[in-house]
Every structure is written in structure tokens, then in C-alpha cells.
């Protein structure tokens, strides 16, 4: 897992120091696939490892996997206004810590903790907003092209390319299969047993 964009609000050293603080002051919990995080009110969990999937509430469509250090909360008042929810998709390790501990300051050099935490929240919102705009922006082929490239770099893919795309978008089955068939026929991609094995040449901007 890589850390997400920090909007230039903190340095790599500050992020690493923050995560060490979370690991040392928080309670590390291991969750099995499908298990609820069961976070308490005013408690936040930071993803350390494993696959924590993010899904849209309305459609149940998959958005993305959590990035390293991503904060997760289950407070009803907070999450009732959010259009997504999280679900464990493998063994996941999360460090849980009360939010107030992050903002406790016993010395001036600890102010960065609140800045890092806030930036991680903004990173999450920005990430989800960008993904939503791309996948629901009306350009179906642009969405398919992006997901084909993501599929090839995804380490934990267990499904075929078409299902991977359909799970993440509102595109129809016929449209997705039509695009993939055209790309394969024109020598852009290689597919074996429904899985993308390689991109043979740069994908076109239009098809």
C-alpha cells in the first residue's frame, strides 16, 4: 500500500511519524474477510495492511481499495452523510484510536498530527470524488480505458476484465463486451480465459 496525495500539507517524515504514533498509541486489530470494523463513536481506524474495499451505498458498486493510512469511521452522525461504506475483502489490519488523542498536544512539535489527520480525510474525499467523476462522467470508453490500465497494475485481481469493469461502473454488459471485443480485434489487448494478460500497444483515445 502507498500513502495517498497529501496536498503538500505535510512531509513524508511527518506522515511516517504520524503512522508510528497511531501504531504505538492505537489498538491494532485484525479483521477477517466480511467482518465489520465495529468502530466506536468518535473512534477512527487507520488501514495498515490488507484489502479494505470502498463501495457506494446507493448502487453497491466498488470504488477502490483503501490506501495505506486511510482513516475509516463508522459514527452514524458522520457516515450518514457519506455516500460510501467500507467492507473487508481479505485479512485487514487496522489501528484504532480515539480521535481526541490525535489532537492532544503536549509539545509544539506534535501539532502536525492534526494536520496529517485532516489531510488524510481530504485525500479520501478527493480520491472518491475524482473516481466518481471519471466513472460517471458520461464518456463510457474513457472509463473502460482507465479501468483496463488499472486492471493490469492491480496485484489482487481475481476476476475477469469484463466483470472487473462492470463491478466498478454503471455501464451495460453489452457495451463493455463490445468495447473489449473491438480492442482485442484491433490488436490493442490480449485476453485469455477472460483475463487481461497484456496491453499490446497504447490504447486509442476513441474507438
Automatic annotation (TrEMBL):
It comes from the Bacteria. Residues 159-204 form the IprA winged helix-turn-helix domain. InterPro entries: cNMP-bd_dom_sf, HTH_46. The lineage of its organism: Bacteria, Pseudomonadati, Pseudomonadota, Gammaproteobacteria, Enterobacterales. This is CRP-like cAMP-binding protein.
Amino acid at each position: 500500500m502507498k500513502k495517498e496525495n497529501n496536498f503538500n500539507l505535510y512531509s513524508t517524515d511527518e506522515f511516517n511519524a504520524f503512522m508510528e504514533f497511531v501504531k504505538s498509541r492505537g489498538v491494532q486489530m485484525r479483521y477477517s474477510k466480511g467482518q465489520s470494523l465495529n468502530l466506536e463513536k468518535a473512534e477512527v481506524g487507520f488501514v495498515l495492511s490488507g484489502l479494505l474495499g470502498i463501495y457506494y451505498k446507493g448502487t453497491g458498486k466498488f470504488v477502490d481499495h483503501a490506501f495505506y493510512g486511510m482513516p475509516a469511521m463508522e459514527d452514524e452522525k458522520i457516515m450518514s452523510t457519506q455516500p460510501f461504506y467500507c467492507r473487508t475483502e481479505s485479512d485487514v489490519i487496522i489501528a484504532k484510536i480515539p480521535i481526541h488523542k490525535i489532537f492532544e498536544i503536549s509539545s509544539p512539535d506534535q501539532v502536525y498530527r492534526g494536520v496529517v489527520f485532516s489531510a488524510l480525510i481530504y485525500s479520501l474525499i478527493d480520491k472518491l470524488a475524482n473516481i466518481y467523476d471519471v466513472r460517471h462522467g458520461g464518456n463510457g470508453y474513457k472509463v473502460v480505458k482507465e479501468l483496463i490500465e488499472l486492471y493490469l497494475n492491480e496485484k489482487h485481481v481475481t476476476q475477469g476484465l469484463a466483470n472487473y469493469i462492470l463491478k466498478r461502473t454503471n455501464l451495460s454488459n453489452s457495451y463493455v463486451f463490445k468495447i473489449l471485443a473491438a480492442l482485442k480485434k484491433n490488436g490493442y489487448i490480449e485476453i485469455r480465459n477472460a483475463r487481461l494478460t497484456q496491453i499490446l500497444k497504447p490504447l486509442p483515445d476513441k474507438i
